[in-house]
Design goal:
Layout lengths: L3 E4 L2 E4 L4 E7 L8 E7 L6 E7 L4 E3 L7 E6 L4 E6 L8 E9 L2 E4 L3 E6 L1
Parallel strand pairs: 2-11
Antiparallel strand pairs: 1-3, 3-8, 4-5, 4-9, 5-6, 7-8, 9-10, 9-11
């Protein structure tokens, strides 16, 4: 079992930056993949970024070049650095851990981008 806690959300102006953190209750070394998803009001939850246990990363086209996912295995933490934020990035961001055959989710952290 994995418990996930997100932090780092908040209100930021368009063009600004935020760094989200996801702390896991156990070592993330053996977790197949960890990622960030987001859900805006009235929309489906969508993948933002994912990082595998081997370090491979993938990003949604809408955030590619602006967001960076990384991990610190020693701290059992995954980060999402968000730069050049846009109003359309406004959403609740959720940390996800995939440990086949299970998926675990954090409680979410609100990111609001204003102009």
């Amino acid at each position: 079992q994995v418990q996930l806690v997100e932090s780092g959300g908040g209100l930021v102006q368009a063009g600004g930056s935020l760094r989200l953190s996801c702390s896991a209750s156990r070592s993330i070394f053996s977790i197949n993949a960890m990622g960030w998803y987001r859900q805006a009001p009235g929309k489906q939850r969508e993948l933002v970024a994912v990082i595998s246990s081997g370090g491979s990363t993938n990003y949604a086209d809408s955030v590619k070049g602006r967001f960076t996912i990384s991990r610190d295995n020693a701290k059992n933490t995954v980060y999402l650095q968000m730069n050049s934020l846009k109003a359309e990035d406004t959403a609740v961001y959720y940390c996800n851990a995939r440990w086949v055959p299970f998926d675990y989710w954090g409680q979410g952290t609100q990111v609001t981008v204003s102009s």
